[in-house]
Write a structure and sequence with these properties.
The chain is α/β, with parallel strands linked by helices. The chain is 38% helix and 12% strand. Strand 2, helix 3 and strand 3 form a beta-alpha-beta unit. The C terminus is likely disordered.
């Protein structure tokens, strides 16, 4: 349903940026939505906060539908991902244990081809840093949605214009 809404928005407002942001299990919704979009309707950027998806989830299909980057904020201090997800399972329905993207980031697939490596170059992992505490992000599961943190660290990532994203994809292939 969300993929259909994005396609409609792209038709109604051609040239306007389209960005996705997901938190926790919503990161799986964002990735699954990307996979459902046709390659002719890519989004500009994606931000994943507290991603409860397996670290080894294959992002190739999703990455083909992103012009710019997929930014993955990670925190090894995230107790929900470190303790609850290993018990309940990841949002992509895998028994990932503590191998969850929100803790450690996504892993490049084993034996990745040059095409897959190129696609994965769109994944930018942003590990938690002590300086984030200044904006209320202490590494907890929902700290990345605190207003100050969003203002200073998340929103700026969405300011990438389509021209910059297109230029970047031309440089990479």
């Amino acid at each position: 349903e969300l993929a259909g809404r994005i396609q409609q928005y792209a038709r109604d407002f051609p040239g306007r940026p389209i960005n996705l942001i997901g938190l926790s299990a919503g990161t799986a919704v964002a990735v699954f939505t990307l996979e459902e979009l046709p390659e002719s309707c890519p989004v500009d950027n994606v931000i994943l906060l507290g991603a409860s998806i397996s670290s080894d989830y294959d992002l190739v299909r999703a990455l083909k539908r992103v012009r710019g980057k997929i930014y993955v904020f990670t925190s090894e201090r995230d107790a929900v991902l470190a303790f609850l997800v290993p018990i309940s399972g990841s949002a992509d329905r895998e028994d990932a244990g503590q191998e969850v993207a929100g803790l450690h980031g996504f892993k490049l697939p084993v034996r990745a081809t040059s095409e897959v490596r190129q696609l994965y170059s769109k994944v930018v992992q942003i590990p938690w840093r002590r300086e984030f505490e200044h904006d209320g992000n202490y590494g907890g599961h929902t700290d990345a949605v605190k207003a100050e943190f969003v203002r200073d660290h998340v929103a700026r990532l969405l300011k990438t214009t389509r021209d910059e994203a297109r230029s970047s994809s031309r440089e990479h292939g």
